[in-house]
Design brief:
This protein is an alpha/beta fold. A seven-stranded parallel beta sheet has the order 4-2-1-6-7-8-9, sandwiched between helices. Strands 12-11-10-13-14-15 form a six-stranded parallel beta sheet, with helices on both faces. It has 15 helices and 15 strands. The protein is about 40% helix and about 15% strand.
Length: about 375
């Protein structure tokens, strides 16, 4: 069996959850089958961890201005030539695109992570009938969904044939030996990733304005590539929040991992996710997770009683307060997270994906 992972996400993301997913999946699968990431031109840093099973001609630090279409076309042509020679049984697309790969006799698989664009079209200045994944879905022989919620949303918004879908949960590494977990947490809360749109950072700020003692006792560290914007500055000021204790920072994986080790808790207020990688990663470092009650996130964390309604700042504030000031709640969340990630290893993810590949090739789907 030969599995080709196409270049798509490796040209879009320098770092990120989706590209890490495919990098980890290819590493785990390569122990059992012949698989290869085919990314002739890429900007992705995760590929530095792949020593073999990789076809890469050029690594760029970033896409030069006005060259995206040219590089995309070059990637497609070069990948097609390579795959025609290599002859994969399955092309697993790493992100949405309209490439047919007509000349290659291989099944096409696509991951659907979430349906946030379709659920919140107004956030993207689109109407309620916007269906940006339609063409990509039409070209797929099978779709892997990141959660049962995503699978249900796919049927709801695209009327997609559920017989052509499977659910494969995202994996996570056992990042720390439980014996080395830091139970003596520092006085800060952690927010990781984008703060835009449905990620719901504004409601987190509103929640912290309801109980201002929290930001007097704890710092809020916002870790991600986005710099603080004017709307955030204005909101923080208008809410009368302790600006000195809200920090915006970025950095490499090592710096993020240090934050996971030391933070009192990760706060994850997103209104919608496909599964949610930061909560998984946080749990793997012994970092307590306080999240929204979005169904997909709860599929990952299995912590409904420690979650909040992301639409209600009062509920967000109450849940945060009840947890971060309670040593017993913090210790429970640390222990729970370390146990939970044992059920969500990359080995299990790769085995579940391999089972999907086998069933597709054996025409059992």
């Amino acid at each position: 069996m030969k599995i080709a992972f196409d270049y798509s996400i490796f040209m879009i993301q320098k770092y990120g959850g989706i590209s890490r997913y495919f990098m980890e999946l290819s590493k785990a699968l390569s122990q059992d089958i012949n698989c290869k990431i085919i990314a002739p031109i890429s900007i992705n840093g995760h590929l530095n961890e792949v020593n073999q099973n990789l076809f890469n001609l050029k690594k760029l630090s970033k896409i030069p201005p006005y060259s995206t279409k040219l590089i995309t076309y070059s990637n497609f042509i070069t990948s097609s030539i390579y795959m025609n020679l290599w002859k994969p049984d399955i092309i697993h697309k790493t992100y949405f695109n309209d490439h047919h790969y007509k000349s290659i006799k291989a099944k096409k698989i696509l991951n659907v992570w979430d349906l946030s664009h379709e659920i919140y079209p107004e956030l993207y200045s689109k109407n309620k009938n916007w269906r940006p994944k339609k063409k990509s879905l039409e070209l797929a022989d099978h779709v892997i969904c990141s959660s049962h919620k995503t699978k249900n949303d796919l049927e709801k918004y695209y009327n997609f044939d559920l017989n052509k879908t499977s659910v494969v949960y995202q994996g996570v590494n056992q990042s720390i030996n439980p014996k080395n977990v830091n139970y003596d947490k520092k006085k800060y809360l952690l927010y990781v990733g984008s703060r835009l749109k449905y990620k719901n950072f504004e409601n987190l700020l509103r929640a912290l304005s309801i109980n201002k003692q929290i930001l007097d006792d704890f710092q809020l560290i916002c870790f991600g590539e986005e710099k603080i914007n004017q709307l955030e500055k204005d909101l923080i000021k208008s809410l009368g929040l302790n600006e000195k204790n809200i920090l915006f920072t970025s950095g490499n994986d090592q710096k993020l991992h240090e934050h996971y080790l030391n933070a009192t808790a990760l706060i994850y207020p997103s209104k919608n996710e496909g599964f949610g990688f930061p909560p998984l990663e946080a749990m793997s470092f012994g970092c307590p997770v306080i999240s929204s009650n979005n169904t997909a996130i709860l599929e990952a964390t299995n912590l409904p009683e420690y979650s909040f309604d992301p639409e209600l700042p009062k509920d967000i504030a109450l849940k945060i307060e009840n947890i971060i000031y309670s040593k017993s709640n913090i210790n429970f969340l640390i222990s729970h997270g370390l146990e939970r990630i044992k059920e969500l290893s990359w080995k299990k993810t790769s085995q579940d994906a391999l089972n999907v590949y086998k069933k597709i090739l054996n025409k059992l789907y």
